[in-house]
Write a structure and sequence with these properties.
single chain, 420 residues, alpha/beta, UDP-n-acetylglucosamine1-carboxyvinyl-transferase, Chain, 2 domains, 4-stranded mixed beta sheet, 14 helices, globular, binds uridine-diphosphate-N-acetylglucosamine
Length: 420
């Protein structure tokens, strides 16, 4: 197991290239199961979640080859079974359900289970697939779905916390091969859904409205192979932007798409961070004094829950009281107690965290609890005086490509240790 030893106090300076988006790539790879023909996906980041997806696709019978950041998938003969040992390691594997059901008319995929950020049900995925005519039962921890042929239908996929991203992806993928027209109301509007729809359309699907709350899918008989380049990772970009601001540095995010980052950039500007969008690049300049801001996480185009923990670190450096309200995942404040160990002043009040700043953070051993919480601990370590030892960074390697190398190139003193 690896950990990171970080010596804080240096501003980040320079350029960083944003990798392909994990949350786009996982469904894109699953979508390749919808055709017998080879598909090629480019700008695939080297992450352990992607490696898991390769194992899962291989386990269902696909041939997968990786070369640099390109993955080729040929799903000529596949089976509709995906077992618990693979699925439990990565929640994103639930997005196999839609493609397997669409292509084979049957799927048996292990239920993913909860995780530290919340219970994470999949009732909306099942509601959508049932609306397409699938018979679904839960049997011994598995979702068992089957149908003679899926039939297009109109459905409402909104839940307690709004739309569901992977639920929308699952239904959209299954509906591409259904008979007739499917209309998803209250669909997720995330850029990753638009990216998936573009890939599916390149494969011969007929999807309109992706990126809006109403997506219409006209089923076709079969899909064919296609090539696609995944969008850059807006959460990685947000993480580096916040890190640059917190460290009072100046970082250019090469390849970042500002149009996917409005909510985050808006809050950074409100906090006094300067942004330069010249020449198609985004440069983030941290001011000496940060102002407090209030943030509420929301479905896209609102402030992303996946950047909430990182933003909380910025709030610890602002002069005054900031309030951060989490509306997507009920227990996504696991990082608070670790940030407190570094000296942050944060009180939880129901779904909100009240952050008093500015705090002088000082290095200590801390433990990462999930992917984005790990990123927050790394940012806090870059700001803290002295040395911080961030343990359990396998979470970080799930979703950030070579984050220690990228930070080192920006001037951070960061070392990866192999713990015995
Ligand atoms: C995706 C992202 C994850 C991000 C999340 C919200 C991937 C691989 N993961 O996860 O990084 O944090 O979107 O932006 O893309 N819900 C239900 N029933 C369901 C499904 C979801 O009640 O059937 C609830 C969830 O508990 C949560 C909310 O809906 O409160 C949003 O979850 P959802 O959009 O489904 O998250 P994921 O797609 O799993």
């Amino acid at each position: 197991m690896y950990s990171l030893l970080i010596e804080g106090g240096r501003p980040l300076e320079g350029e960083v290239t944003i990798s392909g988006a994990k949350n786009a790539v996982l469904p894109l790879m699953a979508a390749a199961l919808l055709t017998r023909e080879p598909c090629v996906i480019r700008r695939v980041p080297a992450l352990s979640d992607v490696a898991f997806m390769v194992r899962i696709l291989t386990a269902v019978g696909a041939k997968v080859r990786s070369q640099g950041d390109t993955v080729s998938i040929e799903a000529n003969r596949i089976r509709g079974f995906c077992d618990y040992d693979l699925v439990r390691k990565m929640r994103g594997s639930v997005c196999l359900l839609g493609p397997l059901l669409g292509r084979l008319g049957q799927a048996k995929v292990s239920l993913p289970g909860g995780c530290v950020i919340g219970t994470r049900p999949i009732d909306l995925h099942l509601k959508g697939l049932r609306a397409l005519g699938a018979k679904i039962q839960i049997d011994s921890g598995y979702v068992c779905a089957q149908t003679r042929r899926l039939k297009g239908s109109a459905m409402f996929l909104g839940g307690r916390a709004g739309p569901t991203v992977l639920g929308t992806a699952n239904v959209m993928m299954a509906a591409t091969l259904a008979e007739g027209v499917t209309v998803i109301q209250s669909a997720a509007c995330e850029p990753e859904i638009v990216d998936l729809a573009e890939f599916l359309n390149a494969m011969g699907a007929q999807i309109t409205g992706a990126g809006s709350p109403t997506i219409t899918i006209t089923g076709v008989k079969e899909l064919h192979g296609a090539e696609h380049e995944a969008i850059p990772d807006r959460i990685e970009a947000a993480t580096f932007a916040i890190a640059a601001a917190c460290s009072r540095g100046e970082v250019t995010l090469r390849g970042a798409r500002p149009e996917h980052l409005h909510a985050v950039l808006d809050k950074l500007e409100e906090a006094g961070v300067r942004l330069d969008r010249a020449g198609g690049n985004l440069t983030v300049k941290g001011g000496r004094r940060l102002r407090p801001v209030d943030v509420t996480t929301q479905p896209y185009a609102g402030f992303p829950t996946d950047a909430q923990a990182q933003m909380m670190v910025l709030m610890t450096q602002a002069s005054g009281i900031s309030i951060l309200t989490e509306r997507i995942f009920e227990t996504r404040f696991m990082h608070v107690s670790e940030l407190a160990r570094l000296g942050a002043d944060i009180t939880i009040e129901g779904p909100s965290a009240v952050v008093k700043g500015p705090s002088v953070l000082s290095g200590a051993p801390v433990m990462a609890s999930d992917l984005r919480a790990s990123a927050a601990l790394v940012i806090a370590s870059l700001v803290a005086r002295g040395r911080t030892h961030v343990k359990r960074i396998y979470h970080l390697d799930r979703g950030y490509e070579r984050i220690d190398d990228k930070l080192r190139r920006l001037g951070a003193r960061i070392q990866r240790l192999s713990d015995s």
